[in-house]
Amino acid sequence: MRDAYLVGAAQTDFGSFPDESYRSLFRTAFERARESVPAGLDPDDVEEAVVGTLGVGGRQLGLSGPAATEHVGLHGIPTTRVENACAASGYAVRQAVQAVRSGMADVVLAGGVEIMTDMSGDATKYWLGVSGETEWERLSGTTFAGVYAQMADAHMAEYGTTSEQLSHVAVKNHRNGANNPHAQLGFECSLDDAESAQTVADPLTLYHCCPTSDGAAVAVVASEDVVGEYTDDPIRIAGVGAASDAVGLFQRDSYTGIEASQRAAETAYQRAGVAPDDLDFAEVHDCFSIAEILAYEDLGFCEPGEGGELAESGHTALDGDLPVNTSGGLKSKGHPIGATGAGQVVEAFKQLSGDAGDRQVEGATRGLTHNVGGSGGAAVVHVLEREQEVDA
Amino acid sequence: MSAEKPKIEAVGAYAPRFRVSAEEFERAWGRFHAAGVNAKAVPDADEDALTMGYEAAVRALDAAGRAGADVSFLAFASTTPPLAEEDLTARLGGMLAVPADATRHVFTGSTRAGTRAIDAALAAGPWADGSDGGDDEVDRVGLVVAADCPRGDPDSSEDHAAGAGAAAFVLSGSGAAEVAARAEYAEAFPGTRFRRTGEETVEGLGATGYERQAFTETLAGAVEQLDADVSEVDAAAVQAPDGKLHYRAAGALGVDAETIQRCATVHELGDTGAASVPLSLAKALEQDDERILAASFGSGGGADAFVVENERERGGDAVAAALALGGEDAERVGYAEYLRKRGELTSGPPEGGGAYVSVPSWKRTLDQRHRLLAGRCPECGDLNFPPEGACNACKSLVESYEEVQLPGTGTVEAATVISQGGAPPEFAEQQAQSGDFAVVVVALDGPDGESASVPAQVVSADPQSVEIGDRVAATMRRIYTQEGVTRYGFKVRPQGTE
């Protein structure tokens, strides 16, 4: 099977943009992604596209993929819309890799888009949690904050994880986001800010929750046969793993870990032939602070139950041994559902291209992205590496 | 053996745990218009006449040692049915697992509805069912449920008095309390406590003398028709639209005020409408009063009267009773909270759309939501709830789960408290009315020590107090209302609370 490479990736700012539509945001991300390709990208080279979106608000629920790609002049190519809740565009990238590896296409565009802030708060709430298990979990009165809060409660009870450890995740990610011009909440916060903020779903405070966001992100995936036309310093998508689980928390074996993440990571590491210790940075799915702590454990950065301590230790800070969420993560950068997975790949591209500015991880050679749908019904993990550095 | 006519075998009663006091009304209004009512029961935002009736009914059935499957006759009485049109005994029967072929009646339209339901049950029985043939006669029962939560305009005496509560009676040939005499009486008194079509609030003319005359004359008329001497009764369960009127009728009824007060519930629960006399009768039976007069008044000028003779008089068994009327466990609320809980201050569910469970889809889950039917995986033996699709434990695609009835108790596995504004829109109105709520994943007990995990809201508890490891028990509440159709289903409450 031939290799797939990430030759470009870019995003819009994440935030609240009343002047924008899902089409205009997608266009901005698309144009920036073209510019991000070192040798440039002729739109005619794109043979296929995969667009991730949940479709918050309804707008273009059906055929939202073609609606986006035709809008930017990618006329006539096959476009598929992927929906896996918050993991939609992580899965879009995975599908682009599949298309390239299978030989069906040499250049595939993988992106995502979401508009979440142009509705009333009430209307937004109808859409938050549409990816929870609907008949039982949602109708017990929870949105995702509630379900992740239950996981936090179980994790605290089993391992002694503390609210302060959750807050450490928020503080770190805000510090990183303050250095990311695309971040929605690009300001620093103190431990006290996070601890004393109003409760959303006990034990999660407002600072333990990501915002709702508008935004788009686009990545360009190319085959080993053509990658040389686009870059002299190729970034290989070395390993991809993905897995599913029951949509409702109550239907799963564990409330203190996300099995889909564990399986996806295991596959991705195996395919890439690497271990967690080989990573220089990771972008993980921190929709709530507890989710980042679970990710540390599920992705093998530490043993089960040690995630809280890892967050507190500084190990995952920008100057730590394994910087996590250098972009600010979902917490600070923002979480436009359908764009989030591709947005993580954008950060990986910037880090591996040495283009991450003040938040650059020095000598970044290999990184991981981890994107979760819902409370763990879907997960996808990519391992990316600078081929020349790895081979050197 | 020929079946005996129905007697009262067991009683159950329920009142919501919230109370608002007369002083709170005085503070809000300058004066309180329901003299004699010290406090009254306030339903939670997810309670209504149907859920209160369910609470009373399960207690009565439990006290009798009976199951819903034993019920051949089901009557539901309320002046405040949650729907003006729909046979609510279908839902109530479903929640109680009453057989599909049971006789059902709904009584409404006046505060006499509760006693009309008892009267109808007495006339309909006996229900002993010899259909199995031979000597194995199956002992069937009648179940009468009266539940009410009347309301008036906030500045009216009707609203100041309006309380909430429910009583239920299991009737069978083997009951200990016999209805020795019954009678009724009607004379037209228009304008005495009425509710206009389409309105939620009752009103009166405020013509005090006229209303008192209507009340006294019709009640006395019914009592006079009784083929029994009421002067010797130990307790008199008399309709109590406020804290005083029923005492004013004492003379006309031939009983003294103490006899009425002995089983009165109005002082602590308020006006319980069609459940007023049933609640007082339940209280009298619980305290083993031997000879009881029950006398109800209905809007427009109708009355029912019964004399109930408790066999205790003849050395027999007492009527089994399970009354959950709050008492010292009650939680006090202020007037503003009272208005909030009643939905007077909230603006209804928000606009929007999103996740949607159609009514037909909801109906498919009623075995679980109303009757807690789980399923055992034939491959690995694990309990699944709901029992559909692949097994949660072994993931094998199950053809057919073995039906397992869960007893309705369980242990909290994970808990959170959803703060105001953090609930899905389906729950926004409930949250606006009653504030933060706890949501747990609960491992519901199976019959053999195993369990089935399920998410559930927690009621009757300080949400912050709910913790992993807590024992809880299932109860029935409104889940949410969409398209005008209220979805009822189980929630959980800390075990040992009412």
Characterization of the model:
The complex is a heterodimer of chains A (392) and B (498). In chain A, 67% of the residues are buried. In chain A, strands 3-2-4-7-1-8-11-10-9 form a nine-stranded mixed beta sheet, with helices on both faces. Chain A has a two-stranded antiparallel sheet with strand order 5-6. Chain A has helices spanning 22-36, 64-71, 88-102, 121-127, 144-159, 163-177, 191-196, 259-272, 289-298, 307-313, 329-333, 340-352, 387-391, and strands at 4-11, 48-52, 79-82, 107-114, 199-201, 204-205, 215-223, 235-244, 281-283, 366-373, 378-386. In chain A, helix 3 (88-102) packs across helix 12, helix 6 (163-177) crosses helix 9 (289-298) and helix 6 (163-177) packs across helix 10 (307-313). Chain A is built from 13 helices and eleven strands. Chain A has a single domain, classed as Thiolase/Chalcone synthase (Peroxisomal Thiolase, Chain A, domain 1, 3-Layer(aba) Sandwich), CATH 3.40.47.10. Chain A is an alpha/beta fold. With 498 residues, chain B is of the alpha+beta class. Chain B folds into two domains: 7-341, Peroxisomal Thiolase, Chain A, domain 1, CATH 3.40.47; 359-494, no CATH class. Helices cover 24% and strands 28% of the residues of chain B. Chain B is built from 15 helices and 21 strands. In chain B, the strands form five sheets. Chain B has a six-stranded mixed beta sheet, with helices on both faces. In chain B, helix 2 packs across helix 3 and helix 12 packs antiparallel against helix 15 (428-434). Chain B is globular, with a radius of gyration of 23 Å. The model of chain B has no long low-confidence stretch (mean pLDDT 92).
